[in-house]
Amino acid sequence: MMRKLWLLIFLCPLLATSCTNAQEKTAGNYVLVIHGGAGTITRQNMTPEKEAQYKAALEASLKKGYAVLQSGGSSLDAVEACIRILEDNPLFNAGKGAVFTHDGRNELDASIMDGKTLAAGAVAGVRTIRNPIALARAVMEKSEHVMMAGRGAEEFAAQAGIEIVDTAYFRTEDRWRSLQRALQEDSTKAKLDHSFVPGAGHHDHKFGTVGCVALDQQGNLAAGTSTGGMTNKKFGRIGDSPVIGAGTYANNNTVAVSCTGWGEFYIRNVVAYDLSALMAYKEISVEEAGKTVIKKVGDLGGNGGLIALDKNGNMAMPFNTAGMYRGSVTKDGKITILIYKD
User: Fold this and answer.
1) Is 260 annotated as a binding residue?
2) Where does the entry annotate site (Cleavage) (predicted)?
């Protein structure tokens, strides 16, 4: 009896230390990745001032999301916080600064997904919502639906307490001039967020959609995407951004994904879900799966990119364009911001 007692006295401190070490190893491996669009983004066509503005905007978004994760907040909170910052910045084709439709309006789309529960929310074609990502989350959490569109979504927004603004809030002169150029070039075709480069003799084809994927301290993944769509789009066209499985997807068992690019090709390839399925069924890495789905988009004639973050905090940011605004922040607070392919 005494020998057992002495054995317990000896082992208890060791067991306590072992448990503490195990908790330290599994606790809080949080990561966050964002994108601000992909396209013909090259050093030759970028002024130092404009590059600094984009980097500052991406850094502000990353810092906002990191503060949420560092304080123990959820991946959903971090995703919404990051995207709100980008929606409020006219540099990007989401929220304020969204591109114009053929008839001179701003129509916004967004979606968000919870990797823990597979709950999701999306809005399409809204015109008066300052932060569409907030409305997408409200659809997920305060309704029994996944997607709402147009006037009905705006009526729901009013009931849900989402900030509503006058349509004039979204207008910027750069986007208006882009529409006028697109109308002059070819009034029958939609344009993918054209940003004219003075003296370059062509348009810089850029997808300004914004997105975020996050892994929180509890090990939960989330993804979100927001966009103004295509310059000169007609007939209520909707792209991949609000389509769960195409432009946005999150599953704690695999990965969180947010896409940016030519939406029709992302919808046809069900890109975001396909990436997750490749990881689940083929057991390949997030990097390999990302490259595979972007190749599929390219093989069909589409272009763009995506950001992806797996359940272990491994990230991938593949794209088949000249550049993609992208950035990440890891648990230690290290921020990385990239723009060009090289």
Assistant:
1) yes
2) 208-209
pLDDT tens, N- to C-terminus, the chain (342 residues): 445 444 444 444 444 443 333 333 334 689 999 999 998 888 988 999 999 999 999 999 999 999 999 999 999 999 999 999 999 999 999 999 999 999 999 999 999 999 999 999 999 999 999 999 999 999 999 999 999 999 999 999 999 999 999 999 999 999 999 999 999 986 555 555 534 343 333 344 456 899 999 999 999 999 999 999 999 999 999 999 999 999 999 999 999 999 999 999 999 999 999 999 999 999 999 999 999 999 999 999 999 999 999 999 999 999 999 999 999 999 999 999 999 997
Q: Which residues have a catalytic role annotated? A: 209
176 annotated ligand binder: no
Is 238 labelled as part of a ligand binding site? yes
Alpha-carbon gap, residue 283 to 20, rounded angstroms: 31
261 annotated among ligand-binding-site residues: yes
- Triad 193, 196, 201: Cα angle to 5°: 130
Domains of the chain: 30-330+336-340 (3.60.20.30)
